[in-house]
Amino acid sequence: MSVAVTVKALMPADIRARKGNHPIVCLTAYTTPVARLADKHCDLVLVGDSVGMVVHGLPSTVGVSLDMMIMHGEAVRRGLDRALMVVDMPFGTYEESREMALRNASTIMARTGCAAVKLEGGETMADTIHFLTQRGIPVMAHIGLTPQSINTLGGYKVQGRGRDAERVERDARAVAQAGAFSVVLEKIAETTACKITAAVEIPTIGIGASASCDGQILVVDDMLGMFVEFRPKFVKRYAEIAKDAGQAMSAYAAEVRNRSFPGMEHVFADAVASTAKIAAQA
Question: Is the pTM higher than 0.90?
Fold first, then answer.
């Protein structure tokens, strides 16, 4: 008699408890097949608004909509059993007011089945983070380089250098005190990232920050070599899927043009021909 094995999904409290312990492995995912692969290796899977750039071809994350995040969130949910699922709140869905953030975060959670949302901003978003967490919505914070603010930041610049370090450190303390269960540190000077990790009581998840962070996250299309339009310094490519896919498509195109594909093994004989062949072999 077989016994069904139930896999317990990780929750925000489980990630929070990993502070200072085993490093937290995180990746983005936007589709069911990739989510299934990531679930075998990751503690946390983020449905990132980076989907706008790497899947939909947008120039930045600013144009990503709530409906887009929900659609991809639903797809990712179908591929996860164990990893904690977090969904990015897109630009313009939480900044106006705490109440607006609550409505949209509630919609994301209800529609996708995710266990938490992520939003960008430090001190300026601390009140909203507190408001959400007090109403049952776990929040992952995101400070340092915040891509949704690219127009005001003036580019994808390193944050937390020199005199700017104090501002980023204040942001980290503010989101931790507000109740975030973890915080992403993006493109922050290594020394500053180390100081923040030592100072706050919640796990820090680095992306272009420091190996001393409590965990790391990368955009899956970047680390697999699927997105090749540009390559940030902090990205390590563990595969070159775009290159391999290009070579495969080239081989396919050549075989179609010289009529070597499909071969006999890829086509279907009619019933009369199949019966005759069987009779001949008897």
Answer: yes
